[in-house]
Amino acid sequence: MARDEAQFKAAKRAYQSARDEGNHQEEARWANVIGDILKNRGEYVEALKWLRIDYDVTSKYLTEKHLLPTCQSLGEMYLRLEFFEDALFYQKKHLELAKDSDDLVEQQRASTQLGRTYHEMFLRSVDDHYSIRNAKKYFKSAMKLAKELKENPPTNKCSFLKEYIDAHNNIGMLEIDLDNLVEAQKILSKGLDICDEEEVIEDDDGRSRLHHNLGNVFMESRMWNEAREHIEKDIIICKRIGHCQGEAKGYINLGELHYRVQKYDEAILCYQKAHDLAQSMEDEDALMGQINQNIDTVNEAIKVMGELRLEEQNFKKLSRKLVSARGTGSERKWLLQQNKSLDSLIEKSSMITAWLKHLEFAKRKKRIASELCDKEKLSDSYLVIGESYQKLRKFDKALKWYNKSWEIYKSIGNMEGQALVKINIGDVLDCDGNWAGALDAFEEGYRISVEANLLSVQLSALENMHYSHMIRFDNVEEARRLQLLIDKLKQSDRKELEGPKTAGDCCPETDTEGDDYSLNSRSSTCSSPLTSNSYKRKLHNTVEELNDDAPLISFLHSKEVSPKFRTVAPVEKYGNPVKHMMASSRSSSKSSGDMQKVVNRKRIRLVLSDDEGEMHAQAGGSMAGPHSMERTATSDERNKAAAAAARGCQLFVSFKIDNELIHVEAESFGSDDEFDIDSVKAELACLYYLHLSKEKRSKGLLPIIQKILNEGKPLPCLEAVQRLRYLLAKGGVEVLVHGWIQKPLMKLYVDCCEDLTEQPNMKLLKRLYNLEVSEDEVILSECELQDVSVTPLLNALRMHGTIAMLNLSHNLLGNGTMEKLQQVFQSSGQSYGDLSLDLHCNRFGPTALFQICECPVLFERLAVLNISGNRLTDACGSYISTILKNCRALYSLNVERCSLTSRTINKAAEALEAGSMLTQLYIGHNDLISGNAIIYLLSKLASLERFSELSLSGLKLSKTVVDSLCRISKRLSLSGLMLGGTNIGADGALQLSESLLFENHELVKLDLSFCGLASKYFSRQLVETLVCGIVELNLGGNLIEQEGINALASALVRPQCSIKVLILNKCKLGLSGVVEIIQALAENDSLKELNLAGNVENKEIISSSQIEISLMHPHSSLDSSAAKEIDPARNGPCIVNRECNQLEVADSEDGQTGIEPDASGVNHSCASSWERIGAVESPLVEKLSMAIGMAKQLESLDLSNNGFSLNAAESFYAAWSASRGSLAHRHISKWTVHLSCQANKCCRLKPCCKRD
């Protein structure tokens, strides 16, 4: 320690001297040395500070070559501190620099570190497939480079033997985590053989790591003597070389070994020694926490062992009583009591991993079950014996007993038992290396559980199938499909469990038990071959009371667990200083007369994100220890949400395209009401392309899908999803390819994703596939892009070169992306040609505009800039001014909703010059823009010859501003004026309209929504002028009375009517007004879009419907006494109200009281008001349906929030589709009623995007 302190002080003096002299190279080197000394002390935070100094000095003053060692040191330090994203950043930079300088030595070091980081990320998650892939990739690359360097060293001074040995250790460690113990032992032993052959000294840290991991291998293989030998060698070497952290980890593993053989006193001593060592280090709090947790675990195990011995005494007492009761009527009673005691013993032995005891008790249980002549209990006991042999790693015997159990379950017709056994058989085969056989067994278990509607067993089987495809066969697509099925099943189960509890849901002694959807489980040493730190295992308590005659399978209840009991965990070298231990839990069951069945499960889930497939450091919170986990599938789950489970399973559809099987989630099909075949075609084309090999993808050709066939028949373009699922479940789905189209940008994007080891974003791929746009138009709105995940796209755009339009709206992009975009435009080589840049609704700040100001290419090309919906604030004022001055081609600028004030508007106005090309300006919905600022802006706009469209929406306009608008309208030929929400009132609107319409014949777009217009504005003359002279008119949010409705209807039937878009939402038209407006469209050939949302109140439809009902059914006016006849048990918990009784009353000859469901299956006594109202529609609703059918030229109609019933909405769609055929489209939900056509679908664009 004194020597270490002397080195530390000397290094600090040398650093200070170099800094004073200005010798930056020495300054950086000594900062690195100081950081390394602090790292070896365990003072990681302080070490990181010095390594950052090294990096800052090197990057500022030295060449890139000098960054290699500092990047390596920072990567290692961030890894030790578990900051994985930072670690990956520096390690990838290290590798990139090494490749640029063609330095194989540094490439090998960087690859090793990257493998370690991905390995640690993998250990801390349960669903990170990319991390394990990358860990394998980099570890193998490191070994290959180490071997090459060992055989051909760059200098005579270095043999690279150490790196080659460490490469074996890393790959062996990975094989342990994949439960490939034989392969791991082979690789690690080879590493030790190399050490012996090359005469590596005994006290070598590389040897210690190999001994450490071999100790883990032999411990998992239950070869205790060999495990102890290697663990002790690891401890001795670490002690001799002063590796304090490695020594502590060695003692933790030795404590785990003692724990597993129930030597608890020795385990405590080992943990105490590890605790003392960890305490001597500065920043090893996590390791300390793990050790303390392991000590608590051992103490709990000691208590359980005491309980087990007491229960053994109880069992012996019961055995003596049974001897005296032989041949009497109480013999069965004592047999059942023994069976109960054995269940408790089996449970407790499982909790402390005493598998030999577990086997002993399981065989006794078999004898008791034989005497009871209970086949189900006998098959249960066989299952437990199989589990014992499986945990003892005697796989042949385990298979023997599992097969016996399966035969009995089959003979008595117990489907659940058969499914459980098949899953356990699969687990044994997997542990034994028969991966294909394991997958077959899992699939058979799944088939049986689906046939028997066993939700939880389906889940267990799917998780094991998912594990096989993900880890054993590396079948990402199938694993993805199975993962989505797993998620749907869990969601279905969770929904069921969120319902109200009944008195029978929990017993009085355990009233805290919930309906946790997760499955009870029992510990395992081989059931999680993916990694030994993957899971938590859940164990069961003995319960006080039981039903003696009930079979085991009836007691498998899934209950909420409490983290009472925990087992210890060994740790691994070269990773996180702490490896969190496996947590085991005990759960109380309301009755457990027999031991619960166990279904083993592998590592659970694979989530393929659309963004960065490798960045899962956030999963670190779910770390687990080296024990594996297994699921218990419970029999009472078969009564839980069978229908929901079926719905979950049917959300996947398989398509066959060009001999490739593609799986698509049904959510891609569109809304819940309607199937969107275009979306499915796009996703199929993208998935097919991703299925191709790299060679086949080289041309960038994607299929143009003509038809999708189900049983030889084309799927309809529009079909309800529920109906579609039924169709697709009946047979295979084939896809006919019409031709092929080249998508170079998509190819570049996928290639860039591969280069960066990222998963392609499916939403982005579908946008790139868009057949309606050219390759120069890049429209990528709503793709969930972030500054990190957008990198492969930007790289692709840089290689693509030519871009005429780039739309990145509605993403999560920030200033970092804007800086990279500037580089894309600069490197494109395209110095002319208009460019449209749509960046609205992202996370850009004011400095994002600075990047435009610094890009000469954009000065020449930028024609459209939409950056609305970003918080730019007044800090962007000078940038906007520069853009208006320098971007000579700019004709459209949108800065709405950017938190701007008068200051920025004044700066923008000052920048406007007479020769400007500006044509459109949108500044609405900003903060505190004064009237003077707007008047000044208007005066400058009046000097522009080309200006024609202005948006002031959401700004409060005074009379002086309105006067100014009227004046400039006489000087400018405005084609569009948006004043929605400006509150100018009827007088201001009349003044403007007269100025705009009677003196300017160019106006085609006018927005006066929510301006407080009164009835005097809607005179017949003015309305006819508006409708006959304007193409898009928005009058929503203004009160339109009958006179205005008549004027609008009259204007719409005029042959001169030219309007195409009319918005009348929230105008209080009433049902009769809505009918009148739509009836007028029968003779209108121009109107394409009509919005009548929010114009009808519920009471208007209800009263109208009630009048009609009373005319049709005079006896339906029965008062509330009819409600008394309705049996609440028959009709459920719904409260029957007067409205329900007025709809329909059961006839006396029905043979029951209550309200019958109608033909649609809706029981109106319990239906929602949306379903009930309109069961008998009013005459006005029928007239509206007829009017909709007559408005044949209309392409989009919005009737949302008008209180229409489901029946009414369906009748509207029937009338709509009658005149439009297959082009008809609908979006109908509780409050939404959208009718549209294929070419003009509703909701396809957000309101802020419709302008373009």
From TrEMBL:
InterPro entries in UniProt: LRR_dom_sf, TONSOKU, TPR-like_helical_dom_sf, TPR_rpt
Q: What is this protein called?
A: Protein TONSOKU isoform X5
Swiss-Prot/TrEMBL TPR repeat ranges? 248-281, 379-412
**Which Gene3D superfamilies does the UniProt record give?**
Ribonuclease Inhibitor, Tetratricopeptide repeat domain
Which UniProt keywords are listed?
A: TPR repeat
* Organism whose genome encodes this protein: Rhodamnia argentea
List the residue ranges of the region (Disordered): 496-523, 610-630
A Pfam family matched in the record: TPR_12
